[in-house]
Structures are given as C-alpha cells and as structure tokens.
Backbone:
C-alpha cells in the first residue's frame, strides 16, 4: 500500500524474522518522517536453518512479493536487521586514561575474551557508554570506575549472505543493524530513562534493558507467539489456524486477565522479567521506570496488566508510529499492526535521526 509519490530519498526498513518479513518505507516530508508504504508476510516456515545461513531463495521471494503487493516506490535504499540470536554483544570496562589508539587495541584484546568466535570471522563494532548511564553490578565483571564500552559483533559469512541477497534483488543495502537498535529508535527515541523492552516474536521472546539509549542487558527465551498458539490449539482442541485466529481475537478484547493456558505458557518469560528486575535492583527502587511491550503478541488482552501486577511498574504497548506522519484514516489498522512493525520502522528511520 503506497501513500506518497516515489522518491530516491526514501528508505525501506526490512525486518527478517524466523517466520515472517516486515517492511516499512519512510521519507522526509517538510521536516517530518512520513509513511510511504508498508507490508508484511507470515509465509516463511523457517528461513534460518542455522544461525549463519540465510535461505536466500525464500527471503528473496517473500521480499519481492511484499514489494509488489504493497506497491512500494522505486526506492532501493534498504536497511535490514540482524536477528538478536545471531549477534554477540557485551559491555566491557576499560581504563578511562587510555588514548584512542590504546583504546582500540584494548577493545580488541577484551573482545577475544567475550566473543566465542575468532575475531577474524567477526565484524566488530563498539560504542562508548556515557558515564552517567546506570549499569547493574551483574552487567559487568567489574563495576569499577572507567570507560564502559558496548561491543557488538556479527559473523562475516552471515553479513555476506545478507549483502548477496539484497544485491540480487536490486537493493542498495545501506546498513545492517541489530533488532534492538531499531526498537530503540522507534519506541524510545530521545528518552534517556531506563526502560525494559519485551519483544515477543514468533519463536522467541527477547528482553532488553535500555539505559541512556544504550542496550545494557539482553536475555532471550525460546517461547513466543507460536508457543501460545500451540497451547490454545491443545487446550481448546482446534487446529493451529483456528488457534492463531483465536489468539488475535484475544488481542482485540478489552477484558483484563490472561487465560490460564497463556499464563502457564508465558511462565518462563514472566520469571525472566522478575529476574532482570532483581538484577537491576529491588522493584521498589524503580531503577527500571517502565516496561514496553512489542512484537506480534504484544497486544494480547491482559498481558500488560499481568506484567504490571508482577513488577509494580508501568507497562505499555509501544507505539512505533509516534514519530511518523501518516493519513489519519489509517490509524486503526496501523495501531493494530504497529507492534509487529516496530523493528522495520526503526530501521527505516535510521537515516533521519
């Protein structure tokens, strides 16, 4: 679905998940970021047979289908995401007295200790963390004073697979980013307070703590929307297609409280949220000021209320469109699909921040 005239200045965010692909095209119009088009497909069974290999044929076919059906513009500028499970990240603590040259060599030395692959097989990036960003005692091996650095590494062969895929489709791959950077851009923006983000995907749930705009802690649990669908199917004795529809019908209800079958399925996720709250200090200290839900199952009726009761912290479903201009008549549908499009929106916004 295309809403603006084609422009080479627009950018397309491409979020490739374990079972779906989401795409959003944005452009700058009178100092505002405006929606050009969006589309998604849930027709991928599994495009990651292993962490370092793309099913290029499947990805390419689905991307071409989305572009064609959603009437994207002629822009071929794309920013894509690397799935969380393929990326290595860690925070290290270095002496604040190091020169820039010594800092680079020290980062390489420390990276060898925390990244489980040879560095020659990794594309490594790092970012200095401001001194006023609060980190928990368990985030670092030592929490002594010094220069804190966020390390992010991804396998070179995975990156080459992405580059080949997009080139074969005629796209200019402007950048590759981790999912969390897209989420921070679309859901948090310039807010420097400490937040927890709970991203409920199809096959897993990622939990991040973001402080000062920097992801300082992440966890992943192999439970997501598909596990909820299977629980509904088993308990209500219906096939998966009907169970999936039942789950989406729950998302549109206003009643509070999750069904017991969903609470039981999401138990490990709730336990992980409680653990992270403990890592960041007792819940009464309010070190984490809010929890933001995103992903395809974020709008399940009663989910936000259940987590709020568990943590005693404000819980909201994130709105990734809040900095994007779009036709007002699209608001109902965009609100409905927003949580699943959050990564793609944040990726497309990269060149405008």
Residues:
């Amino acid at each position: 679905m295309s809403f603006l005239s084609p422009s080479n200045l627009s950018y397309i965010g491409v979020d490739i998940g374990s079972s779906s692909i989401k795409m959003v095209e944005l452009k700058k119009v009178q100092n505002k970021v405006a929606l050009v088009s969006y589309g998604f497909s849930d027709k991928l069974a599994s495009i990651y047979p292993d962490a370092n290999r793309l099913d290029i044929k499947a990805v390419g076919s689905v991307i071409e289908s989305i572009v064609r059906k959603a009437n994207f513009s002629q822009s071929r500028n794309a920013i894509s995401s690397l799935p969380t499970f393929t990326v290595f990240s860690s925070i290290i603590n270095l002496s604040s007295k190091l020169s820039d040259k010594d800092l680079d060599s020290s980062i390489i030395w420390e990276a060898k200790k925390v990244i489980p692959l040879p560095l020659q097989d990794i594309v490594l990036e790092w970012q200095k963390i401001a001194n006023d960003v609060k980190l928990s005692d368990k985030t670092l091996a030592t929490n002594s004073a010094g220069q804190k650095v966020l390390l992010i590494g991804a396998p070179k062969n995975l990156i080459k697979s992405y580059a080949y895929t997009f080139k074969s489709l005629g796209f200019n791959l402007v950048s590759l980013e981790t999912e969390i950077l897209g989420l921070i851009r679309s859901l948090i923006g310039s807010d420097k307070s400490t937040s927890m983000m709970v991203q409920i995907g199809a096959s897993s749930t990622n939990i991040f703590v973001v402080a000062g705009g920097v992801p300082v802690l992440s966890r992943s649990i192999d439970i997501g929307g598909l596990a909820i669908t299977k629980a509904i199917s088993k308990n209500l004795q219906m096939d998966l297609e009907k169970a999936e529809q039942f789950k989406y019908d729950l998302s549109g209800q206003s009643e509070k409280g999750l069904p017991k079958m969903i609470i039981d399925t999401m138990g490990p996720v709730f336990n992980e949220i409680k653990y992270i709250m403990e890592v960041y200090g007792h819940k009464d200290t309010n070190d984490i000021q809010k929890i933001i839900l995103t992903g395809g199952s974020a709008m399940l009726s009663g989910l936000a209320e259940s987590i709020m009761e568990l943590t005693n912290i404000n819980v909201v479903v994130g709105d990734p469109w809040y900095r994007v201009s779009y036709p007002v008549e699209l608001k109902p549908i965009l609100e409905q699909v927003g949580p699943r499009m959050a990564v793609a929106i944040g990726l497309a916004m990269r060149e405008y921040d």
